[in-house]
Amino acid sequence: MPRTLDPELCHALAARIRYYNEMGIHDFYRRPPLVGSVAVQQPSIDVSEHSSEHTTEPGEEMSPRKAIAAATAVVDEAILEPISLKPEQSVSDPVQALKIIREDLGDCTRCVLHKQGRKQIVFGVGNPNAELMFVGEGPGADEDEKGEPFVGRAGQLLNNMIKAMGIQREDVYIANIVKCRPPGNRQPERDECATCSPFLMRQIAVVKPKVIVALGATAAKTLLGMNSSMMQLRGRFYDFKPTGVLSNDPNWDGCKLAVTYHPAFLLRDPRQKGEAWKDLQMVMKELGMKAPKPTT
Ligand code: URA
Questions:
Q1: How far is the CA of 186 from the CAs of 113, 149, 156, 182, in angstroms?
Q2: Of the candidates 47, 137, 165, 278, which lies 20 to 30 Å from 262 by C-alpha distance?
């Protein structure tokens, strides 16, 4: 569990971050100190490019005070998050490694979602060697029923988006920020995301994708530790490394992360499908993929 920083230190860190931001510096890298024999690895998030080119969606802009509080919260968690060797790290077969993570999760009671009507844990599905990974928010009723992410209406649309890229659902890996259905399909709370996402980080470190597509704001904000609007987050790649875990592959140094609209949002506002397709085309270019020719 992340410890709370001394408020004065928080304040000083927030002031320092603001000072650097005002000087146009937005990227921070922490020199990896050694914990035992394991180097602590921080998420490498580049937020410098383009961010000022976008306008902000109404109602989503943060006040400077909130922004500092958010930055401080990120610093707070990131700075004290220990890295421990995970049992799957000694296993080279990703199928086995994912099984170990699933077993570790057990019949999870780590957050309140376990007692709010979930039928089962929805772990993740797909190619354990996938180059492309999709991360959604959390299971809905259909997913809770079947134990598989994105099998309802939003899942059908996601399948179509994947097909439009010229690949199949089986080629990619699909998971969510939280693995239990939030009651009434509410958004998962921040503490629920924080409790559950370490397991997702471990899945990412096993699958070692080249690109992650964050579907919607919850996935994007949780993975990137940023509290920006979708408009600000989309349209570019971020360098991403899972926090709190090291991959057992020295050749995998993290991946690219792109943000696009959640399929459930696209079902509500199909006019944004073109924008989502632009995001996916950017991903396809990165992966050297070509869209299939439309059949007549
Ligand atoms: N929405 C999500 O975010 N995830 C699912 O698995 C299904 C719907």
A1: 11, 16, 20, 6
A2: 47
d(CA 45, CA 223): 10
Range of 28-32, 34-38, 73-77, 209-213 with top mean pLDDT: 209-213
Q: Where are the beta strands (DSSP E) in 12-167?
A: 34-35, 38-39, 125-126, 132-136
139 CB near ligand 1 (under 6 Å):
yes
Which atom of ligand 1 sits closest to the CA of residue 136? 3
- Any idea which of 6-20, 40-54, 247-261 has the lowest mean pLDDT? 40-54
Residue range(s) occupied by CATH 3.40.470.10 in the chain: 87-287
**pTM for the structure as a whole:** 0.75
Does ligand 1 come within 6 angstroms of the Cβ of 143?
Answer: yes
Mutate to test the pocket of ligand 1, among 150, 178, 200 (most ligand atoms within 8 A of CB): 150
Residue type, 151: V
**For atom 7 of ligand 1, which residue has the closest CA?**
150
Atom of ligand 1 nearest to the CA of 262: 3
Question: In this structure, are residues 225 and 233 in contact, taking their beta carbons and an 8 Å threshold?
Answer: no
| Correct CATH for 87-287 of 3.10.20.340, 3.30.365.10, 3.40.470.10, 2.40.160.20 | 3.40.470.10
